[in-house]
Design goal:
Number of helices: 8
Distance between the termini: 133 Å
Helix content: 40-55%
Strand order of the largest sheet: 3-4-5
Number of strands: 5
Order of helices and strands: HHEEEEHHEHHHH
Oligomer: single chain
Structural class: mainly alpha
Radius of gyration: 42 Å
Strand content: 5-15%
Shape: globular
């Protein structure tokens, strides 16, 4: 009886030892797995890889645009029947998109610019230090510039200038397109030196579009005088 009891006790002890060893092995495995998980990079909630979600380093930015090199600058100012230059122009030299010739007056000041193929208003403005280069087109009664155009850059404030988009005090619903076409025809005739054509265009197409008689009188006086220097600024 004692021998049977001793065998049972020995078997129980052996089983307990085995269970204890199994528990130790399981705990070690779980501990190792946890340690490995802590060392691995965590994945985003979407399950994508860290490499896919990583943001690239920002590329080095280009050098900032330098400040204007203009010692002085000019700004084209357009009024109801006037045009002037506020400030001073300087020619910084021919460049891409502004490679044409500058026209100078007797004092050596820049007055005009002859357009070359590929020229752009912004580049022309940068070359001559004009703050509002899109006004160059408006001053010259055009929407686009073309090679060979002689653009007025520095208008004489003593000479009247006819508005391009609409006359002063134009009423609501004013027909802008016919007006612009007539002004453009006057400009072409002025540059061609054809005063008779200008007189005919004004009498037939343009005079009746001006709401103010004073403006009509001003233009008619210039046409009567036949002074092309005046007429070429009025309809630059």
């Amino acid at each position: 009886m004692q021998s049977r009891t001793a065998k049972i006790t020995a078997w129980s002890l052996s089983a307990a030892v085995v269970l204890l060893l199994v528990a130790v092995v399981l705990v070690s495995a779980v501990t190792a797995q946890t340690a490995n998980a802590d060392d691995a990079p965590s994945l985003p909630a979407t399950g994508s890889s860290p490499e896919a979600d990583a943001k690239p380093e920002p590329a080095a930015s280009a050098e900032p645009v330098s400040a204007s090199e203009c010692a002085e600058s000019g700004r084209i100012v357009l009024g109801p029947m006037s045009a002037s230059l506020d400030g001073q122009l300087q020619d910084r030299g021919a460049r891409d998109l502004a490679a044409g010739d500058a026209g100078l007056n007797a004092d050596g000041d820049v007055v005009t610019y002859t357009v070359e193929p590929g020229d752009a208003l912004d580049a022309i403005g940068a070359r001559f230090c004009i703050d509002n280069p899109t006004r160059i087109a408006t001053l010259n009664h055009t929407r686009t510039i073309h090679p060979g155009d002689v653009l007025l850059l520095a208008p004489n404030p003593q000479v009247p200038w006819v508005p391009y988009f609409a006359p002063h005090e134009a009423p609501a619903g004013f027909e802008q397109i016919p007006y612009q076409r007539a002004v453009e025809a006057m400009s072409a005739a002025a540059h061609a030196g054809d005063v008779d054509a200008m007189r005919a265009i004004f009498a037939d197409d343009l005079a009746g579009m001006f709401p103010r008689q004073a403006d009509v009188d001003t233009i008619e006086a210039a046409l009567d005088s036949g002074d092309l220097a005046v007429l070429r600024q009025m309809f630059a």
